[in-house]
Amino acid sequence: MRNMTIKEAHSWASSFLRQHHIDQAPLEAEVLIRNLFQWNRSQLFLQWNQPFPIEKWEPLKQWLDQRIHHIPLQYIVGEQEFYGRPFSVNPNVLIPRPETELLLEHLIHEADQIWQDQPITVVDVGTGSGAIAITLALEKPNWHVHTVDISNAALKTAKKNAIKLEAQVTFHHGDLLNPILESKMKVDLIVSNPPYIPTKDLDDLMPEVKNNEPMLALDGGEDGLQFYRQILQQAEKVLHRPGLIAFEIGIDQSEPIVELLQQKDSKWKLQIEHIKVIPDFQGIPRIIIAKIT
Q1: Is 127 one of the annotated binding-site residues?
Q2: 212 in a known ligand binding site
Q3: Whether this model's pTM surpasses 0.70
Q4: What CATH number does the domain located at 80-292 have?
């Protein structure tokens, strides 16, 4: 490559990504270059007119090649911001998304209405990168936060994030709430962003998702509701009263999941005081929070 400034290298990388139909090409080129040098935005623009080092060309081209082959940007740079904090991510875990931040905002608000500043015990089912559990532990340091995942590789990533972000979280390996049941633990709050894509719809996902993110964290069974059923089946045995159950859900799943909750209400020793269905930033029902008494 001929001698270029940082600015010119950014322009070239943007053009390359745009030619390969990558959305938000200038932003993605910026993120790649900043991560290449471990710079923030201010540092990038301070170096804007400096020469682009020759030794950085090959790593940049390798990253660009990965991106045009639909490797997610977050996996390339190994990080995704969530709730204002940097989480390490890799193909063993889902990339945390803004909708899950919304889940946490509403969950914390609902919990504060019940318990104010009292310490409570929380379990995050299917932790992945640890984004939910670690954020709750940091936002609510007097809460006792537990989390479960069936994937040892995901737990390794989550534990790494907990150490990096100095969060106090207890990790359990196992299937859904089984480790909590086996330990005879009781919790005040169950939260989960489980796999919810119906199996038949997996092939329709974007290549960045279906070819890279872990299928274990995507496939929600025949109708996408498999894990909601299982979690609700187990919840009665682990949930204190009053308690909260909070889910992130997929498109068109709010009505069937509300029905599942109402069916449980008629069979449980628990009673559901109210169920809230909350839309995401596009107005799609995305969060369900049920108060149990």
Answers
A1: yes
A2: no
A3: yes
A4: 3.40.50.150
